[in-house]
Amino acid sequence: MSQSEIITLQLGHYANFVGAHWWNMQDGSFGRSQPGFEKEINHDRLYHTGLTAKGEETYTPRMVFVDLKGSLCHLRRDGTLYEDDMDVEEVAQTWDGQVAKEVTEGPAKNQFLADLDTADREYLEQQQRPTSTAAQETPSTGAAGAQVAQVPLADRLYDLDSAVDVWSDILRPHLHPKSCCMLNEYVHDSDSNPFDVYSFGVDMMESGKIADQFQDQVRFFAEACDRLQGYQLLTTIHDGFGGIAAGVLDHLRDDYEKKAVFTVATMPSSFSDMSARKVGCRSFGSALAFQHLSEFSSMLLPMSCSTAGFWPSIAGQTARSAYVDYKADLTYHTSALLAATLDTISLPYRLRKTESSLHHMTDLLTPCGRKVTSAYCALPLPFRPGQKLVDCLASVPALHEGDLALPLTPLTHDSDLAYAQYATLRGIPPALAKQTDPGDLQPDDAFRTYLAGKPSATINSSCYVHEASVVAAPFPNVFPSSVTTRGFVETEEDFLRPSSCGVHTMPVMAAVQSRNSTCKLVEQIVQSAADSQPRRQFAFYQSTSSISPDTWSDTRESLLQLADNYSDM
């Protein structure tokens, strides 16, 4: 049993998109390590080891997600690892009557999921074959299909931009039956009965329609932990899931008061419906959720590819960098960038040998009530083939300068120094990071020297990891041809990456920061909610006993006090 486990909670469709990409990246990193180095990432921090009824060991995300009916598509609620293994023949042994087996086909799967099913099926068949038989069999190369089958799934290139509708269309790992918690009263993407108001989520929690099941599933994972250190909460806040998140935090505060809670508030970079009603619901509900999350989380990280604010209304105002070319209107794209950032900034408390923890990280970045943080990510770090680490860092500006890094917290990007930051560098090949001259620094020392020489924060903490970020399929194809399959940046035209190849891994630099400019985001949240005509919004809140017209006044004062915290340093 591992020590210091963390439970991940995912609330809402966009947050589950981010989570799906994040779990894919972790799943893809299994077995990967730089030659000559021990495995650095301790997957036991976030993964749960279990046993099926047949005694087979499973390894699944220690995670509970909440979403609406219709969001799972091909994904079974109870998963496939723990399914009832009694087949028709076994049933027939205890039943004298006639037995018929009917199979109903679901919607067609995209190419990635189809290949994933094939890979799973071939693996199970290989496990069931006698060892001698399996050793004698060699794959045929006579047919094109056989040749394709030999290409590892992670190395294949897919165009899924028009084939992904829900987050389960890209999910790679298997899930535990206790991970799924569905709201059957609402249907995903429904126009007739949308789950788009903060109070709808509060009602669901207060009525017990979702709270009891959710708490039981969280308790299942918590009781299986040796020493639970805290929670990662990924949530959307612009719809009813903001109310769900508020209720979840109340539960965690009551039952797990001493555990750290790192909350990530996610927001799409664009919305198709910009009607006055929708904008008002988003603005007002998000303000209520933001206040609750900032008060009861150990640390709150708002994340979006929008640079115009948490409710983008101006097309084109999205985060951009020199080596990422994504489609801002595709949830499949934007959620991947947020996930890649989270995968790197969370490394300090996910390593095998680490002095950091979730508590340590949140305490460092949230002094004097400044619980709201911001994120930057250089994806990839512009490392050229054959370039030494010290030479690369010498040419890299501070994360908040230039167009190298994506600023992924709206309205917090400026030229001022952050008060504190936790920066992580990963994925530098050993041959390029090693010392070749007597005066060369070790990679972690070189990184600390870079942070001190090109300061972006008054207080710096750093983490260096050899293992690269895994951006293989089904991560979207958002990198130009100048980025090689290993994530290097190539300038010679003859060495550009062919269009038939994707990017598999890459070096990344990312940071979580406490910035004075966060006050701009908080003030915008207050102003947008005020512009939504709060009295009109309360027409949607009449059924919610815990929300009254006085709630907005209290929320406004609390958020303005939060904004003031960022002007005192």
The residue ranges in which pLDDT falls below 50 over 5 or more consecutive positions are: 85-92, 134-149
Sheet-strand content, in percent, reads 15-25%
The coarse overall form would be globular
Q: What is the radius of gyration?
A: 24 Å
| Mean pLDDT across every amino acid position | 86
Task: Determine the structural class based on helices, strands and strand pairing.
Answer: alpha/beta
Give the tally of β-strands: 15
SS summary, helix count = 17
Q: What is the helical fraction, as a range of percent?
A: 25-40%
Secondary structure topology:
Elements lengths: L4 E7 L1 H16 L18 E5 L5 E5 L1 E7 L18 H5 L18 H18 L2 H6 L7 H6 L30 E8 L10 H9 L4 H13 L4 E9 L3 H16 L4 E7 L9 H21 L2 E5 L27 H15 L12 H8 L8 E5 L10 H6 L11 E2 L10 E9 L3 H4 L9 H11 L3 E9 L3 E2 L34 E2 L1 E7 L3 H14 L2 H4 L11 H17 L4
Parallel strand pairs: 1-4, 1-6, 4-5, 6-7, 7-8, 11-12
Antiparallel strand pairs: 2-3, 9-10, 9-15, 11-15, 13-14
